[in-house]
């Protein structure tokens, strides 16, 4: 599914660990299965989770019994990283060592709870939000964690495509190489439907130049700018692809087009996209509600 994704050394470590101990499916990523496979003694107590080694040399993980099962499993994976990769007592360790170990452990949790080699076997939906929901359910992780992992994969896939210079694509209908024409510069046009009652343009047409498409992660769309109008006659001659949920985000009042998602979906085969302003209005309203809620 992902042809240009490159795994990190930590990710390779997790994958090799699972393969060596025959952990091959999401259903096996449990405290019981991993503890038995890796010879880890697990205790539960109403105190913060931690890892330690007993006087006899047994590797132990103490899990907070007050936590819900999902959080206990994630805590287990966090402490498992300390058991497998880290040495020393954090109580007497310099702060920067502790911080480095904790960052490593958090990355480990992301890879260990959703290994790439298992994700790559999934039949993922084309819809971004449905994919997040499926990953969350399949791997038993919070939705925000599934989103972080999938966004990470999309970003690395995008970066992989940039590294190899994927400038042409296979035509799905003929199998021939198709040359892609790019605009001289990135431009945003506004289309006003003469039959619409919507205030302002009904759609924005975003035409990306080669440099923007191949080097930028996202594109800022100014909210207060009046874009050049485009007529229907000109619009119907363009090869325009629709944006879908997640391609446009609004955070802290800034509206951005997620170029890396478009590249993931189309490669470099498309460079012009339509943004429906009714969808944008809903995205902006959601952002404003969240801002009011947390202020």
Automatic annotation (TrEMBL):
Residues 35-150 form the IrrE N-terminal-like domain. InterPro entries: IrrE_HExxH. Pfam families: Peptidase_M78. This is IrrE N-terminal-like domain-containing protein.
């Amino acid at each position: 599914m992902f042809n240009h994704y490159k795994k990190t050394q930590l990710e390779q470590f997790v994958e090799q660990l699972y393969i060596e101990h025959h952990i091959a499916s999401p259903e096996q990523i449990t405290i019981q299965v991993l503890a038995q496979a890796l010879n880890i003694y697990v205790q539960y107590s109403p105190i913060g989770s931690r890892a330690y080694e007993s006087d006899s040399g047994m590797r132990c993980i103490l899990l907070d019994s007050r936590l819900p099962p999902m959080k206990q499993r994630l805590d287990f994976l966090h402490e498992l990283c300390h058991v497998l990769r880290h040495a020393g007592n954090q109580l007497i360790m310099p702060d920067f060592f502790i911080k480095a170990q904790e960052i490593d452990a958090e990355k480990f949790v992301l890879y260990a709870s959703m290994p790439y080699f298992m994700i790559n076997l999934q039949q993922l939906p084309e819809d971004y939000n449905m994919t997040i929901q499926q990953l969350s359910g399949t791997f038993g992780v919070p939705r925000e964690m599934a989103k972080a992992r999938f966004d990470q994969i999309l970003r690395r896939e995008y970066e992989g495509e940039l590294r190899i210079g994927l400038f042409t694509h296979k035509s799905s209908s003929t199998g021939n190489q198709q040359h892609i024409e790019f605009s001289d510069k990135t431009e945003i046009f506004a289309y006003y439907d003469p039959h619409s009652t919507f205030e302002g343009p009904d759609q924005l047409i975003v035409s990306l130049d080669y440099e923007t498409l191949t080097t930028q992660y996202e594109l800022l769309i100014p909210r207060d700018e009046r874009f050049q109008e485009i007529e229907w006659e000109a619009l119907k001659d363009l090869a325009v692809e629709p944006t879908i949920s997640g391609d446009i985000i609004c955070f802290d009042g800034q509206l951005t087009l997620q170029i890396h998602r478009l590249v993931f979906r189309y490669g470099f085969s498309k460079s012009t996209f339509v943004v429906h302003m009714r969808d944008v209005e809903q995205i902006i309203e959601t952002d404003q509600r969240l801002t009011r809620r947390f202020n």
